[in-house]
Structure formats: structure tokens, C-alpha cells
Structure of Metalloreductase STEAP4:
Amino acid sequence: MLDKELKNLTDELAQKTKQVGKCELRVICVAISDVTDIILRFTDKMAGVGENAHKRDTICILGTGDFGRSLGIRLLKSGHPVVFGSRDPKNAALLPSGAQVFSHADALKTSKIVFLAVHREHYDFIPALSDLLDGKVLVDVSNNLRMKQYPESNAQYLSQLVPKANVVKGFNTVSAWALQSGSLDASSQVFVCGDDNQSKQLVMDVARSIGLTPLDQGSLLAAEELENYPLQLFPMWRLPLTIAAGLTVLFFIYCVVIDVIHPWAKENKDVSYRLAISIPNRIFPNVSLILLSLVYLPGVIAAFIQLYRGTKYKRFPNWLDRWMLCRKQLGLVALAYAFLHVLYTFIIPTRYSVRWRWMNSMIEESKKNKTMQLSKVLSWRVDLYFALGMLGFALYVLLGITSLPSVSNAVNWREFRFVQSKLGYVTLLLCTTHAAVFGWDRFLQSKWYRWGLPQAYMWGLIIPCTVLVLKLILIIPCVDKMLTKIRRGWESKLENKMYGNKSLCI
């Protein structure tokens, strides 16, 4: 409507301007007066447009708890007029200055966007306000205490109480502390769902105005998923942490048996002090190496499954699918264990037992008046051991850095795949070789098999070596070519069917 009025004024101004060039002096003065009047009216209209453009919608908030107050503060800072609806409007001492407080019914009359900041147990006052909520946008921000607490989501239950209102679920993933402290930025996301697209758009506009990034999650059926999201406790980390904890316990028990109990039983030596540094420094590298190999093992298994099936259009087993989804978390836990291994290794020279052993060895040599000859093989072995460890750890850290969202979003898919896949296998190869050089030829010497049990590092090499051998098979040119064809959509059964039809035609 406003655009049409401005267009009419523009057309009228053009006509009057044409008259100025065709009329006498008296008529020209009248025309100029008319033109001036039109310009003034045009300016007034444009000023009205500017005022309306900067005017924010009034927001009504039902509920004066922590979240309601924090949301009100944030909206006021963004320029929105805020009206609170409370059971006791007189008790408004804690509410932000600049906001108005009315009863529920009076507050609903002031705005078409209403935020319901109360828990589901207190929805009993809502049905009485059904007529006032007719056609309004009602935003449910509530969460439950636990998942599956009710048969339906809070938002769906609310839509049953007030069927004439346009219920939208949103803002339930944003904390009151984040709203009040101002620790929000454009990367902070808020999920929104609802059955009315126009209502969702209004709520998303409000989210943008306070510095949030809204994401449309579809209809109100998605409300249950949105309400369960804040109740989740590291869902993708459970399996990696469980595997890491299980491996840690197993290796700890195993190392205690062969490194502490065996010397005590066979030689009556108390070396229990190894429980603090030595045994953990055996556990961390082995668990880290196994976890790193478990990052790449599901991809290898998936490749062999695709080769066997001859197609990529069949789902993997659920266990493999879940395993592949948590590979990032497995890698980060593996990196944490590698960091611990590095830290524990750095303090080895400062340990009393190590310094005592070195000093005792030097004293024994001085008493015998002998010197230990330099072993070039041992020198190569030790230097190679440290070099492989440092290179492997450096690439380990690089893998961890590129897994960060801020870094992974800054590179394209080919670059990300090169680092995580190609350099990832190089990291696994370096770390596996590092562990193998540490063991050297111990697996051939019977003295290292205590009670017939191999050293812990031997168990830690089984899965990494298996992954590397399987990957070596997959990079054979003929196998790699077939796998690439399958992943680009080729199907062996389809080709066999086509050749079969051709042979029938012939």
C-alpha cells in the first residue's frame, strides 16, 4: 500500500514538472507550488518508511523465571519492546528495567509473538487464555527432566491445549546464562520447528535480531527431537570412551601381572613403584595405537563389503554404521592418550629409580675399570625409535587440528580427505613402526615371555598391522580401480544383467 502511494506521488510530480515548461509565468508559479507540496508529501512518506523499517516487534513473555528474564534482557538490548505476563504483576523487582509487566491476559493483548517460558507442569493456566491466543505465534521454550518423560512433546501437547494458536518450538537449546551473559555470536544456532511457515519465519527473525543463527527443522513433529537434544550427554563419545576405558583396564591388569606380580613371585622383588609411571606409560601408547587403528578399520571393512556386494546402494550393518559415525571421537581420544604418553616419557630421566639405575651402572663399571662400547645397532635403533615417534606424534596433532570444526570448514573436501585419510594412514604406519622398533627382536627371546605371556606392545601391534595389511590389499591397482567404480555408482549385478540380456538377443 505504501509503495503504491509513493508511486502515485512520483507520477504526479512528473506531470507537474512537464507543465512548468509549457505554461505562462502565473501558471508556472502555481505549478511550482504544487511541485513543492508534492515533494514535501513524498519526504514525509519516506520518513515514515524509515521509521517503520527500524521499529522492532513487541515481544510478550509469559513467565518471569531465569530464562524469561534472560530472554527479556537480550530482547531489550536488541531493540524489542518487551512485555512480561505474570501471575503476580506487582512482584517485578527482578525483571529488567525497560520492560512492562501485566497479568497474563493483559500481556497477551500487546503482542502477536508470545514466548511461553514456563515448564509443562504449569500449563494449567493456558486453556483459559485460548481466545486471546487465537492466531498468535506461541513459542514453546520448555525442556523436560529426562527423555521420553511424556508420550508426546511439550510443543505438541501445547498445540492441543490451544489449537487456534500457531505453536512453534524453539530457543530450548539456548541457556539462560548464555542469553544473559551475552556469550552469543552468529555461530550460535537455535533450532526451530512448527506447522505454520509464516510463524516460524517470525520466530527466526527474532532469533537473528539477538545474534542467533536459526535452523528450520520442519514441522512440529520434530519437537520431540529438539526437546531431547539438550538432555543428551555426549552421545557420540560413549562408545569411544567405553572402548578406551575397557582397553585401559585390560592393559593395566595385564601389565601388573607381568611387570609387578611376576618379579615378586619369581624373584621376591618389590617393584610396585612401577604402578605410578612405568605401567601407565606402557598402557597409553598401546591404547592410543589401537584406538588410532580402530579409526581406519571400519573404512577398510566397508570397502571389502562393497567389493563383495558389488554395489554401494546397500546399507552397512548397524554396528558398522555406528562405528563409522564415531571415528572422529575415537581419533581425539587416541590423541589424548598419545599426549599422555609424550608427557610421561618426558619425565623418565627425572625419576629416582632411573637415576639410581644409571648411577649404579656407572659405579659398577668404574669398579671393574671397564667401559661399555658404543653399539651402532643400538644407536640406530634408539634414534630411529625417537624419530618415528616424533614424526608420528606431529602428524597425530595435525589430524587432531584438522578435525576441529573451525579448521575443517576452512578446507575443501579433497584437502580434508587428504589429511584425514592419506596422512592418517601415514600416521598409523609411523606409530606402528615406532612400536615395532621399540620391541625390536624381543618377540624372539624367551626371557621376555613371563609365564608364557608376551609383552604388552605385541598385543598392541595386532590390530594396527591388520589394518595396514588390509589397506595394502585395497590400494593394489586392480582392486582400487574396482572399488572406485563401485563408489561412483557402478553395480556388478546390473552389468551382469545387461550382458545377459545382450546374449539372449544374440
The chain has three domains: 2-54, 59-231, 238-368+380-475. The CA atoms of residues 497 and 503 lie 10 Å apart. Confidence is low (pLDDT under 50) at residues 22-32, 45-53, 501-506.
